[in-house]
């Protein structure tokens, strides 16, 4: 029931761009959740089916809240039963994994820091550490009157400079054919 409540909060936030219940004080927030009724702002306009779904997801009595099966059958989700979602039996298929697939799988994923380090080394065509502390920069930092006695202050300066100078490649969305889904 808590997952369904969270789904309702998330759907409301997607639609309206804000939370249905809000307060900085957690005790007051819980009181608002228990005692305040759900309010649908006039903008943006949403269908009665969507209002009904959000209301049923945010039902305060957990025993009356929709179940996942009921959500799948709700008119807003299934477009008035025009597009019913498949049942669990129809949607679940046993997948056989071959020994060859197991042998060729990724064994470990390197840390992001390692990938960034390798990319910078390749970009500079150098196998020296690309982020080694530069004495000249450290001297400039001290001449500017900046104290680097605070933990991480100088390193923070270097990290910011590095992140501005380093561009990561864009990620493309993978297209999956309907047969592969």
UniProtKB/TrEMBL annotation:
Keywords associated with the record: ATP-binding, Kinase, Nucleotide-binding, Serine/threonine-protein kinase, Transferase
Pfam families: Pkinase (PF00069)
InterPro entries linked to this entry: Aur-like, Kinase-like_dom_sf, Prot_kinase_dom
UniProt keyword tRNA processing present: no
Gene3D superfamilies assigned: Transferase(Phosphotransferase) domain 1
UniProt key word Nucleotide-binding: yes
Ranges for domain Protein kinase: 1-77
Reaction(s) catalysed (UniProt annotation): L-seryl-[protein] + ATP = O-phospho-L-seryl-[protein] + ADP + H(+); L-threonyl-[protein] + ATP = O-phospho-L-threonyl-[protein] + ADP + H(+)
One MF annotation (Gene Ontology) recorded for this entry: protein serine/threonine kinase activity
Protein name, UniProt field: Protein kinase domain-containing protein
Native source species: Meganyctiphanes norvegica (Northern krill)
Origin organism lineage: Eukaryota, Metazoa, Ecdysozoa, Arthropoda, Crustacea
């Amino acid at each position: 029931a808590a997952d369904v409540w969270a789904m309702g909060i998330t759907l409301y936030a997607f639609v309206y761009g804000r939370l249905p219940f809000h307060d900085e004080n957690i005790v007051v927030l819980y009181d608002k959740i228990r005692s305040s009724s759900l309010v649908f702002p006039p903008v943006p306009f949403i269908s009665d089916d969507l209002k009904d779904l959000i209301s049923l997801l945010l039902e305060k009595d957990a025993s009356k809240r929709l179940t996942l099966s009921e959500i799948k059958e709700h008119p807003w989700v299934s477009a008035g039963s025009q597009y019913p979602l498949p049942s669990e039996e129809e949607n679940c298929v046993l997948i056989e994994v071959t020994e060859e697939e197991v042998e060729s799988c990724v064994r470990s994923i390197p840390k992001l820091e390692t990938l960034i380090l390798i990319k910078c080394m390749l970009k500079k065509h150098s196998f020296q550490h690309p982020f080694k502390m530069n004495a000249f920069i450290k001297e400039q930092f001290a001449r500017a009157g900046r104290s680097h006695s605070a933990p991480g202050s100088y390193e923070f300066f270097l990290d910011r400079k590095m992140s501005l100078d380093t561009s990561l490649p864009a990620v493309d969305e993978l297209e999956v054919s309907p047969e592969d889904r």
